[in-house]
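Subgroup meeting minutes
Present: P.N., E.W., G.H.
Scribe: E.W.

1. P.N. recapped why we're keeping a running log of single-chain structure predictions: easier to compare across weeks, and new members can see raw inputs and outputs side by side.
2. G.H. added today's entry (101 aa).
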Amino acid sequence: MRGTPVHSVTTPEQELERLEGKRRTTDLWVSTTHSVYRQARARGGVAYRHFSATARNLARQAQARAAQIRKHQPVQLLAAVASSAFVLGVITGIWRSRHHA
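Output recorded in log:
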């Protein structure tokens, strides 16, 4: 028959050698995967610590700046808050009138 594969006879030793080759390939793949995972996890940890430290630093700076403004420019701060609330109120009124007409 055309297209029918010819079955070759393998000895038990050849079959064992073939399976050993597959096992070595699998072991190498598993080892490489573990190595890549460990590296990715380590890098992720470093990135997280850096991001976390940067975020804490920015938060401290913002708090210090807010405290400084509250202490030295309370009237300007109150004016900024009031004007922001007014602008947001106007925007909200316009948005509601357009969407709930």
